[in-house]
Amino acid sequence: MVQILFVLGLLLMVYNTYTGLQIKGLAPGGIIGERLTQLNALIVFFALGYLLVGVLTWSRPADTLLVIMALILLFGAIFVLLVLRLVQAILKALEG
Q: For this UniProt entry, which segments traverse the membrane (predicted)?
């Protein structure tokens, strides 16, 4: 079960990374572009951390702490998805 949670979260973070780079293309300059660059760097860092935790704990037996950690990381990936959708909506509203 823990491995499934890690794989789902990692796939979601890969999708978030792709989406973040697409959004960055919509606002390449200015303060919004700068903040999107920072956001994308944090998304990539989070995805790499997710991958590292998954690799380091892959063969460990599932215990309560590992399940809680996997759920926290999965919900963190969902949070990143929601933030990216909010940024997309804001950029569309600014376009007019």
A: 6-27, 39-59, 65-87
From CA 90, how far away is CA 87, in angstroms rounded?
Answer: 5
Query: Residue 6: inside a domain, yes or no?
Result: yes
pLDDT digits (tens, 9 = 90+) for 4-58: 999 999 999 999 999 999 999 888 788 888 999 999 999 999 999 988 998 898 8
For residue 96, is it within any domain? Answer: no
- Tell me which residue range forms the domain holding 71: 2-91
The whole-angstrom distance between residue 2's C-alpha and the CA centroid of its chain comes to 18
- Across 20-95, the runs of DSSP E, i.e. the strands, are none
Q: Which residues of 1-14 are buried (b: 16+ CB within 10 A; e: fewer)?
A: ebeebbeebbebbe
Given a contact cutoff of 8 angstroms between Cβ atoms, the answer to whether 16 and 77 are in contact is yes
Go through the chain and tell me how many residues it has: 96
